[in-house]
Amino acid sequence: MMTGMRLPADAGWKLLESPGASPTRGEFRVFDTGVTTPNGSVLLAVDGSGLRHLLAPVDETFSQAHDRRSGGVHLVTRSLVDDSGERQYIDLACQKQHLSTAFGHMAEEVLAELRASADQPFQTCRRTLQRWRELMDREVSDVLTTEALCGLFGELWNLRAIVAANPAGLNAWQGPRGARHDFCSSGVSLEVKATLSRSQWRFRVHGLTQLDAPRGAVLFLCAMRLELNGPVGITVPALIEQILDSGVDRREFIEKLSDAGYQLRDEAHYHQFRFNVLDVRVYNVVAGFPRLTEADFGTTGVPRGVEDIDYTVDLAACTSVPLSSTDLEQLHVTLSNDTDASAANATI
To answer: Entry's Pfam families (predicted)?
Structure first.
């Protein structure tokens, strides 16, 4: 049994999960997305357990689908009845409550593809599930510390500017994948450091390569001073929504967030922390910049038995002049495109 109504698609999940009459076992509360296939409207739905579904109608002769390989999302066929009678649907079904937000983003990707071509809803659902499968099966529960969240905010603040210039600039965010620097494009790297200190520009540096420019590339350091829970500011979840709204690849972005230790299921926790950017200083990391690299140890290298070198940089000792805000804007544009190092160095 289904009960439903037709409203603008962006009202979807909020409407379905708003207080009111909840569906009982075997029933679905549905929302018409306005996306149509040859067999009818694609629906968002919530079942009696509060789990999310995307329902795409198919012909009654459609072969049964039974993809339950993922613990987080199943792809099956389901017969449902409403006032017009019985109809068969492809059911992309979330299996775990804590995956609701991620599932919502996956459903957005399905709807975007169906708006472009709605002839093969099953293939669209299957292809999208395959892209998201590994991410939806992850089980991580630890939330980020305030310090780690501060660092992630700094990276996302820069990423927002990069993808505003070009959504494909998401590719430049390589820190979550274990790269030496937070952002890198052809010939340009950017490392981001953020602090909540009001009186000092001091940052921890991890290893001897973090402030060492890659061969044939230029390296910039973006140092940010943040205020936590002041009179103004923005949360990390709100910043994430702004980045998603820029048109980036949703699955890739959410996977990178997960790699960085941020899980969408913990949004309610992260809404408690609001950051305001008090000051930003960006430096070209060149000879004379306060740092340690392997080259500082000469031809003999790091002494044998010395490992895991972390140290603190105090930018009060830096004599370099920070880049202007215009230069920073150009750096973000450069990182959003595949620009070689010589061109980047000439324009920044």
So the answer is: DUF4420 (PF14390)
Which residues lie closer than 8 Å to 54 by C-beta, 6 or more apart? 42, 43, 44, 45, 91, 92, 107, 110, 111, 125
pLDDT in tens, 157-206: 999 999 999 999 999 999 999 999 999 998 999 999 999 988 889 999 88
What is the span of the domain harbouring residue 53? Answer: 2-136
Domains identified in the chain, total number: 2
Residues 173 and 209 both lie in one domain: yes
Q: Of 72, 104, 136, at which residue does a domain stop? A: 136
Q: Do 162 and 91 have their domain in common?
A: no
Q: Find all residues with CB under 8 Å of 169, minimum gap 6, and list them.
A: 159, 162, 163, 332, 335, 336, 337
What is the rounded radius of gyration, in angstroms, for the C-alpha atoms of the chain?
Answer: 24
Asked whether the beta carbons of 83 and 59 are under 8 A apart, the reply is no
Helix 121-136 and helix 100-116: axis angle, to 10°? 150
Q: Verify that 217 and 342 share a domain, yes or no.
A: yes
Same domain, yes or no, for 26 and 117? yes
* CA dihedral over 330, 336, 337, 339, signed as positive or negative: positive
99-145 pLDDT tens trace: 999 999 999 999 999 999 999 999 999 999 999 998 888 765 678 99
Token representation of residue 47: 């079942």
Q: Does residue 326 form part of some domain?
A: yes
Q: Are 31 and 4 in contact (CB under 8 A)?
A: yes
What share of the chain has pLDDT > 90, as a percent?
61
Q: How many other CB atoms are found less than 10 A from the CB of residue 155?
A: 23
